[in-house]
Amino acid sequence: MATVRLKKGLDIHLVGDIDDNAIVAATAPQSVAVVPDDFHGIIPRMEKKEGEHVAAGEPLYHDKNYEAIKVVSPVSGIVKEVRRGERRHIDAISITPDGSNETVALDTKRPATEVLLESGLWVMMRQRPYDIVPIPGEKPRDVFVTAFDSAPLAPDLNLVLGDKRQYIKKGIEVLKGLTDGKVYIGVREGQEIDASGAEVNTFVGPHPAGNTGVQAANVAPVNKGETIWTMDIVTLARIGELFTTGKVSHDTVVAVTGEMVQRPCYISTVMGADLETVLKNQTTNLAQSRIICGNVLTGVKVESNQWLRAPYRHITVIPENNDPDEFMGWASLRPSRFSIYRTFTTWLGGLKKPVSFDSRIKGGERAIVRTGEYDAMLPMDIYAEFLIKAIISGDIDKMEQLGIYEIAPEDFALAEFADTSKLELQHIVREGLDRLRAEMS
After folding, report:
1. What HEC string does 222-257 produce?
2. Pairing of strands 183-188, 265-270
3. Per residue of the chain (441 residues), what is the pLDDT tens digit?
4. Are the CB atoms for 49 and 80 separated by under 8 Å?
5. In the 8-state DSSP scheme, what is residue 27?
6. What DSSP line would sit under 357-406, residue for residue?
7. Angle 121-46-36 (CA atoms, 0-180°, nearest 5)?
């Protein structure tokens, strides 16, 4: 076991962390949904129509370009609605559970790739470069798995795993059969995990130490022409469970945290469950709250009548705008104002005290100024500011030279938080990756 010490980054301590690790069981969801936008790189083509019955684990749609890639239903029930947006884009596929728990069983004696594609677990993994669902037929150089989440108010993945820990070894065995390289697992200091067959590395340092991209960059960086797969330890355990039992489990444990949550806690539910069920009696003032599937840096804003997005094991609820008429606005000099750069007096008490944040940006977009902010928040061996400029200008050659093959939008989330220019860095990186992929295909 090697230890990697990271100095760059920042831990953001927010009000609303979980004090009690007990897991509360949610009531059965009234509605469950799959959101295609959660699986970047897939163009959905429906296999089920509204009103048809679907079993848990049965395909709802496949990818237009790679028909073997399936996205399956988390529950058995009736397809209630295929919700479409502009240009008939599929926004969500909602299912009304019938309570029968009918589940599709798979023959796991077939090649592992075929089983993963059919089971729907394939879309829970990510490929670098491009940060997309892996392309079938492209063997990864290595597989990187993170066993912890370092984001603000993030859940303890050991608790989310629960009794699925017993399937980790099997998951490693399956993944080792899909790569000629190694399976790397990143753990935090003091975390114990039985991962025989994998190379375990301990990461010491602030967020984003838990990002698989950061871990890969500090162990075995991705070069042009190479491919790696990334995932978290919960997905790895689900893969092991599939090849042990022949069925995919869609049960999940989600952390409900944030300042607007009455009693932050862990809740057991099903992937894609409606938020009204998950958040029942949890929030103090839903009308003045912002609900985020995921953490405050990389999560997705959702409404209370929507659903728990499949890739996330975390819900954060923060104030929408708790003081719109604040004197001097973002430039207010009140002592409780948070600041990284010692602009306010908060730094005298350190940055470990939980602070309150609402949804305001507190500033406007402006020109990029070379301050070293991005580099201070990104523990990767790339010139972040120059890379962002290359992406904005559309310079493919410079993007390649500056390390775009290593990154994903989430790696720039902390830099976006600290950015005095207020640029949407994650959106810029996403557009750059998509542009590069289109050029290379």
Report:
1. CCCCCCEEEEEHHHHHHHHHHHHHCCCCCEEEEEEE
2. unpaired
3. 799 999 999 999 999 999 989 999 999 999 999 999 999 999 999 999 999 999 999 999 999 999 999 999 999 999 999 999 999 999 999 999 998 989 999 999 999 999 999 999 999 999 999 999 999 999 999 999 999 999 999 999 999 999 999 999 999 999 999 999 999 999 999 998 989 999 999 999 999 999 999 999 999 999 999 999 999 999 999 999 999 999 999 999 999 999 999 999 999 999 999 999 999 988 878 888 999 999 999 999 999 999 999 989 999 999 987 666 666 666 666 666 777 776 666 666 666 788 888 888 877 788 888 788 999 999 999 999 999 999 999 999 999 999 999 999 999 999 999 998 999 999 999 999 999 999 998
4. no
5. P
6. --S---S--------SHHHHH--SSS-HHHHHHHHHHT-HHHHHHTTGGG
7. 50
The SS3 assignment for 118 reads helix
B/e letters for 198-229, b = 16+ CB within 10 Å, e = fewer, are: bbbbebebbbbbbbbbbbbbbbbbbeeebbbb
Alpha carbons 99 and 270: distance in angstroms, whole number: 12
Q: CA 27: distance to chain centroid?
A: 25
Region of residue 9 (phi > 0: left; psi between -120 and 50: alpha; otherwise: beta)? left
Yes or no: say if 42 and 71 are a contact pair by the CB < 8 Å rule: yes
DSSP structure class, residue 126: E
Question: For the sheet containing 251-257, what is the strand order?
Answer: 23-25, 265-270, 251-257, 314-319, 289-293, 300-302
Strand segments (E) across 258-322: 265-270, 289-293, 300-302, 314-319
